Amino acid sequence: MATWSPDPAGLAQILQTLRDSTNIHDKHIQSQITMRLNDYQRVPNYIAYLAHILAAMTAEGEQIRSIAGYILKNNARLITSASPDAAVYVKASTISAFTDASVMIRNAAQQVLITLLGVLEPRNWPEALSVLIQALDSPDQVTQEGAFVVLSRACEDYPRKFDVEIQGSRPLDFLVPKWIELCQHPSPKIRGYAISCLTQFVPIETESLNVHIDNIISSFFRTAADTDPIVRRNVCTGLVLLLASRPDKLIPEMHNVAEYMLYSTQDQNTLVSLEACEFWLTFAEDPELQNALTPYIPRVAPVLLDSMVYSEEEILMNPDAEEDDNANVPDKGEDMKPRHYSGRTHGLEREEKSDAANGQPAGSGADDEDDDYDEDYDDDEDMSTEWNLRKCAAAALDVLAVRFGNTLLQPLLPHLKEKLWSPDWVQRECGILALGALAEGCIDYMEPHLPTLIPFLVNMLADSKPLIRSITCWTLGRYAGWYAQPQTQEQRDRFFIPIMEGLLRMILDNNKRVQEAGCSAFATFEEEAAHNLIPYLEPVLQNLVLAFDKYQQKIS
After folding, report:
1. Domain limits at 487?
2. What is the pTM of this model?
3. Could you say which of 105, 120, 135 is where a domain stops?
4. Which of 76, 205, 342, 551 is the most buried (most CB within 10 A)?
C-alpha cells in the first residue's frame, strides 16, 4: 500500500458524517450532511480518506464503507488534484476493495474502478487494467463477473480509451481474443458480458477487432440460439452494430441473419425483440442496403405491425387505457417538465430514444434524416419516455414506407385492414398507428383508400377508449396535407369540416391525453389549411377559449 496515511482527526470527522448520513428520517440533518460533504471536497486529499474507509476500515460496517465508495465514485475527478502519494493510495485501495470478501464493498469498488479508469484513462493506470485482465482468467466466477462488470461498462462509456498502446502492447490485442473465447463460457452471465464487450468496439472499427471480425461473427452465430435471453439480446445488438458499420461482412450471410432477426423480433422476451427490431430500423435507414432488404419486405412488414400492438403490461401500466375522465385532475409537477429526446445512433450511442409510437410529422433535412424518424416517434401518444418495441417497430415501418412505398404497402394492406376493423380495440389502435406511420412514404399509394379511411378515422374520434381517440388525432394530423385544402364543396363537406369539428371536440375532451393530441393535430391542420380556415375562425376561437378555461397547467 502507498505511503499516504490519513490524519486521525480528519478521518474521524469524515467518518462521523458518513454515519450521520444513515439517518434518513430527519431532513434537516440530511441537508446539513450534504453541505458538510460538499465542504469536504475542498479538503486536501479528501478522496484518499474515502478510499481508506472503503478498503482499509474492515471493522467499520459495510454500509458506511460502501457509502464512502459511492461518494468516492462521485468525486473521482478530485484524483487529478490530489497529491501523488494520495493518488497512488486511492488507486491501490480501489484495487484492494475490488477483491474484498463483502459483496457490498466489491460492488462499490467496481463503480469506483469504472469512474477512475475513465478519469485517468487505461494508459495512465495500467495496473488496474492488468488486474481486470487477470481476473478474466480467474477460476472464481465471482471474480470473473466483477471484472466484466467493470470492463463492460468501461467499454460502453469510453471504448476509444482502450484503443491505445500501453508499455509497448495494445490491451485490445489480448482482450478481443479473450472475449471471443469467453463467448463460449458455461456461465450465461460470462457469455453475455463477453459479447457485450465485443459489441462496443464494432462501430469504432479498431484494428484489434477488425483482424478478428470473422471470428466475432462466428461467435455471434454460435450463441444466437442461446437459452439465456440476455445473451440473445446481446447477439442481436452485435448484429445490428455490424449491419450499421460492416454490412459487407453480413450481406453474404443475410439470409440466415434475416431469418434469425425475424424470429427474434417475435421473441417473448421484450429485451430480445426490441434489439432485433432495431435491426430492421437500421437496415431500412441505409439506402445502400435497399436491394438486400427488398426480398424480406413481405415478411418483415406484418411482423413489425404485430410488434406495434400494446402489450398487456403496457396497458396495465397506462392510466389512459381505461381512465377516460381526468380533465379535472390537477397536473403533477413531473407533468410540467419539458421532454427532451436524443436519438441513439443505431449502434454505439443510441442513448434513450423516447416516445416513439405515435409522433409528429417527420422532418425533411437530408443530413438529419435518421433523427427525423426518431423524433417522429419521440412525441409518442403513449407519453412514455422509454424506447420500446412498439415505438421501434412504428419508426421502422415509417422509414420502410419512405424507402419502399408501394412495395411495402401491398403486402401490408390485408394485415392493416384486419387490424383497423378488428373488434379488439388494442388491435384497432395498432392499425390506426400503422396508418399514420405509413403517411409520409405511402401517401400517393394510400390516396385511393383515403375517401374510405378518413371517415373511418373521424368515427374513431368518438371511440370510448382514450388511446383510440388520441392516436386517431395523431394519424389525422399525418394526413392533413391531403384533406386540409379542399378543391370542391364535396371535399369540404366530406372531409374538411368533419375533421375540423372532430379535432375541436378532442381539444375539449375530458381526457388530458386526448386534449394534448387534439391540440397537436389541430395545429398541423390549421397550418395546412391556411386561408381555408378563415370562414370558421369564430367557432374555432370559441372552442379555444373554452379550452383555456378547462385545461390544467400543462397544455395551456
Report:
1. 479-556
2. 0.84
3. 120
4. 76
